[in-house]
Amino acid sequence: MLGDSIEIHFVHYSSENEAFNKWNSRVDRLRRDMADNIPLFLKFCDRDGSDIDHLKRFHALPFENKISIGVNSFNAKNHLCQPNMKDTKELSIY
Predict the structure, then answer these.
(1) Tens of pLDDT along 26-64?
(2) How far apart are CA 74 and CA 57, in angstroms?
(3) 5 is a domain residue
(4) Closest among 43, 73, 72 to 58, alpha carbons compared
(5) pLDDT for the residue 87
(6) Quick check: is 77 in a domain?
(7) Whole-model pTM?
(8) What is the structure's pLDDT at 6?
(9) Cα(14)–Cα(21) distance, rounded to whole angstroms?
(10) Within a domain: residue 9?
(11) What is the domain extent for residue 29?
(12) In angstroms, how far is CA 21 from the centroid of its own chain?
């Protein structure tokens, strides 16, 4: 958890310490890239409990290069709807 409201899933690491170190190295890299004016690209998938409100909040972020992909329809030029990816066994929002 970051603070009380942001939950991050580190599913490919064998320990909390490894995830923590990877997180910090990526934050450092992001800071360097932003200082060098390297463009930031953001991606969002509507899975793992996300809903339309999450899509709205993502698309309201003040970043130019962003795309969302998922099974939910959403009226944004940079949203790709793929309803054939819907799996009701694993996703709880449908």
Answers:
(1) 999 999 999 999 999 999 998 777 888 999 999 999 999
(2) 12
(3) no
(4) 43
(5) 61
(6) yes
(7) 0.67
(8) 81
(9) 12
(10) no
(11) 16-85
(12) 19
- Amino acid letter for position 91: L
pLDDT digits (tens, 9 = 90+) for 14-27: 998 999 999 999 99
With tokens 């793992």, the residue in question is: 48
Residue 46 CB neighbours (<10 A)? 24
> Does residue 70 contact residue 83 with C-beta atoms inside 8 Å?
no
Domain count, the chain: 1
Q: Is 21 inside a domain boundary?
A: yes
Q: Which residues, other chains included, contact 74 with Cβ-Cβ below 8 Å and sequence gap of 6+? A: 46, 52, 55, 59, 68, 81
Structure-model confidence comparison of residues 2 and 76, the more confident one: 76
Q: Which residue has the tokens 């290069």?
A: 65
SS3 assignment, position 28: helix
Alpha-carbon span 78 to 66, nearest angstrom: 7
